[in-house]
Amino acid sequence: MINNSSRRRALKFATLLTAGALVITGCSAEDNSTTQATESSSNEAGGEDSAAQGDTRTVTDYEGNEVEVPSDPQRVVTLHFAATEALVDLGLAPVGQGGYTEGLLPSEKAKDIENVPQVSEREGIELEAIAALEPDLILVPNYVEAVDLEQLRAIAPSYIYMHGGQDRADWRGRVGQVADAVNQADKIDELETALEDRQAELKEKHADVLADRRFAVINSYNEQEVDLNSDASMLGNILGPIGVQWSDQINETVGDEDGGEFTVSLEEINNAVGDADVLFYGTNLAFEPTETFEILQEEPLYKNLKAVEDGNVYPIGKMTVAGYTDAMFSLDLLDEALEDLES
């Protein structure tokens, strides 16, 4: 049976359908644009509907909007995998999710979400599919436009979390925002303690090999291009406390770009990472690199890099860190790489 609050949401959503504007333009995982939406009236409408279903609490999202959300949300929809993994790390699963492909999670965790319907792809957000799931909370990345956010708020309370922009490298902050939205902030301490303990272990274990080597992190998402991560990137925030020292060239090339990320042409690869003693490259959690990185590995300019010639090239996991699962995976790969360098 559909309760009154669900009928009210459906009515509001139907009104928006009649008015048009059903297609939401999709954004890639690397989109760094920010949402400018602050319409408090839409938030209040979603909050009123939620209140009819049970206890609520008011939280402030990344954009500074006060959002009335369920105290114990049961039907959460995510619009991007970054929020999906955050939920999984917190021991939860969404009822609808953004795009998901095999390898984004280890198999033991993937089983919790692999059959969850996908309601958001690069082509756009499927509003009707989201409404049909009758969510009580929608987690929205901060690249969604204000006009599109209004339609989501007509379906359920919608909380904006940080995905791109100047704070992009703060993946911990993103997970914390999701935890706050779903009232699970108390679980962050345990996750963070496990991460810090692992970092401390590796720092002590590999101090000698880290002392005199310089590292660079690269990937490729488009042919003839090289994607760089500096020490200010998401991976930099994970590996830096252990004592991993980035090469001077990669830090100078990336500079103060948002998220510590920058893309150069293949012709510039030697100027960007030629001084690195060790190269790390991005993979998913099934140890698979991108197809374009595999192509890059056949390029003479790549093969002539110092680290490649020395055989010091290792996988490091995701360059876009979605949560603690990704972080711990990268630390395991770092451990294996440093053990190999020590042998």
UniProtKB/TrEMBL annotation:
Residues 1-29 form the signal peptide. Residues 75-343 form the Fe/B12 periplasmic-binding domain. Residues 31-55 are annotated as: Disordered. InterPro entries: ABC_transptr_periplasmic_BD (IPR002491), Bact_iron-sidero_bind (IPR051313), TAT_signal (IPR006311). The keyword Coiled coil applies. Pfam families: Peripla_BP_2. Residues 31-44 have a biased composition (Polar residues). It is found in: Cell envelope. SUPFAM superfamilies: Helical backbone' metal receptor. Keywords: Coiled coil, Signal, Transport. PROSITE patterns: FE_B12_PBP, PROKAR_LIPOPROTEIN, TAT. This is Iron-siderophore ABC transporter,substrate-binding protein.
